[in-house]
Amino acid sequence: MSAFSRGYLLQNRLFARPVQVESLQLKGCQPRFFTSSQFLCAKVDPPSAPRRGAKPLKSTVPKKEPGGLPAKDAAILKPSKLPTPQNPPNAAPTKGLAIPTKTLELSRRNPILYAESLAQKSHPSIIYTAPSHTRLFFLCSAGAAGIMAQAAYCIHIYLLPPDGLAWFVPYSFGIGGMIGAGLGTWMMLSTSGIIRQITAIPKKAMSTSPVAKRAQKLNLELEVEFRKMLPIPFFPARKIYISPSEFGLHHPVAPQMQAERFVYEESQKYGAVSRALQGLWNDSKRAWTRDGFEKVRINSRTYKLDVTGDQSPDVGHAIDKLANIYGKR
């Protein structure tokens, strides 16, 4: 059976005819690109042939000037025919423009010329503005009230001791009451004598108050306004008028104010809660240590100048130029 099958298969191979594959050939068929294939009926108009329904484009050639450049470029190179406005040599400067002069440059270096430039103005000039002390006032008032209450209780035990106490107990309460009264007074006086604002007032803009009339002979006066010790409404703040030579500082305050402003700007990167807690801690520390206050001597009396948050643009330079610095520079 197997031999018969092998012979039958060999017979088919001998008498088999080769299969011819006829290929379909089309004239002009170029299947290289889809756009050029006529077999797929993809016909594209040549770029030179105009589209159906489209208007023929006009070829515009730019006109050239005699110099060889196009008209647009030549118009740019030509000078403008409009006359340029020029100020006459003796004309007054335009209002609102800050034109530096030799006097202003010298006033930045020489304190005397700076004071004269302020005296020539027709309006007062604010040279210092203190930051807000509301949180400091609240902390000092609350702390002083608590310490004073404890001191009053200790004094009461000292004056009227209960029965059955040892002889040294009332004296201990008396000493504690005196210490508490001193600490409460120290904390209460933390907000006293703080300068709120300093204004340079020229002679032309000086008021006719009796305090200001005492210094009419000078060209420039300093109006020093103090913060109110108690926030009582309808009571004006205390003000004094002095000459710049009577405003004494031990050393310049501009470097310290610049450092404090840098610290303040860096603290703005943190969140509101972090800044509030940091400010609460700083004010609690300032209530005891007087940190951030510079001593100012005016008419043989000492006041406090806050250098932690000057709001003026000069950042303490105006104070250093006008004040009498009696210490080492």
TrEMBL record:
Where is the chain membrane-spanning? 136-159, 165-189
What keywords are assigned to this protein?
A: Membrane, Transmembrane, Transmembrane helix
> Where is the segment annotated Disordered?
45-72
Q: What is this protein called?
A: Uncharacterized protein
